[in-house]
Design a protein that fits this description.
- By secondary structure, this protein is of the alpha/beta class.
- Helix content is 41%, strand content 15%.
- The protein has helices at residues 29-38, 50-60, 72-75, 78-84, 88-101, 121-127, 148-165, 181-190, 226-236, 253-262, 271-276, 280-294, 300-303, 320-329, and strands at residues 7-9, 12-14, 18-20, 42-44, 48-49, 106-112, 132-137, 170-174, 195-198, 206-208, 213-215, 243-246, 266-269.
- The strands form 3 sheets. An 8-stranded parallel beta barrel has the order 3-4-6-7-8-9-12-13, surrounded by 8 helices. Strands 1-2 form a two-stranded antiparallel sheet. A two-stranded antiparallel ribbon has the order 10-11.
- The structure holds flavin mononucleotide.
Length: 335
Amino acid sequence: MNVDLSTRYLGLTLRNPLIASACPLNQDPEFLLRLENAGAAAAVFPSLFEEQIEFQQQQIFGLYEYGTESFAESLSYFPELEDYNVGPTEYLRRLRAAREAVRFPLIGSLNGMTVGGWIHFARLIEDTGVDALELNVYFVPSDPRHSGEDVEKRYLDLVAAVRKAVRIPLAVKIGPYFTSFGNFARRLADAGADGLTIFNRYIQPDIDLETLDFFPNFSLSESYESRLSMTWIAMLRGRVGAYLAATSGIHDVEDLVKMLLVGADAAMLASAVYRHGPEHFTRLERGLHDWLVAKDYTSVQQMKGSLSRENCPNPEAFERVNYMRSLVAFSGRPI
Ligand SMILES: Cc1cc2nc3c(=O)[nH]c(=O)nc-3n(C[C@H](O)[C@H](O)[C@H](O)COP(=O)(O)O)c2cc1C
């Protein structure tokens, strides 16, 4: 049976909905080629961080050793940044080399949280020939004096500023912690986001009981972590004027199919690629094909969103009533 796996995301036609999510693996042209050959439809290049750009500018202007009050936090991890990643000039060179190495869509990525002088790098990323830009706004509102409105305004101003800087499609990658996420998602689209990448996986630091200090305790994701993104994509599908990409916890065919059923236009994977390598995309593409055949769908387009909140037969699954039901039905017994 002929099944059409293609999808539209950010105005691009992709051979299937599988995208290699932003991570350092994707800056190696050979790795990108393996991804492309294995069936990934596109890849997101690792982010250029606002701090990397500011760091270089500080070095150029000789300000690094003085620092500033607002910069203190960033300065403390600049040495690590030097090890982790390269400066913006080298970053752009690598991005250009990557763009030339593969034919599938390559999405650039900027990671920042302030409207600042670094935003013109969005234009420089665009000039490398990438097909779209993903703006990762990773901001932890740790200051209790900032209201929700202040925080949302920060995001919206940043999106508007980047939107103004580039002509290519713009996706915005964000976390889930907003008071009324649906309303905020709509306003991100109004501010110029063509797509939303849902959700960033925030580092939740842990305490080392030996050293009595915090440490990042970073780990790769697990499938169960996809449920938050899945829930919100189901709620947003058809109700926000932006493409929706799912990220966090997509590992196997089941995770992928569920994301598409609730209405994701694309699914992004990083942890699964670290665990299983680029060839995992071949298994996922074949698995998606087989699932569609088994369920008599002729295309991804046909199944996409059929279980969104708007379309599913049981919309109360998302509501408070179902929370109550699930608690009442839970029959756990103490040991
Ligand atoms: C080692 C590593 C590095 C990452 N670097 C970036 C990055 O540079 N920019 C970004 O937007 N996301 C980055 N991410 C986040 C991933 O793109 C992805 O959104 C997240 O890991 C959740 O997806 P997963 O469950 O498939 O891992 C990184 C993830 C990992 C594991």
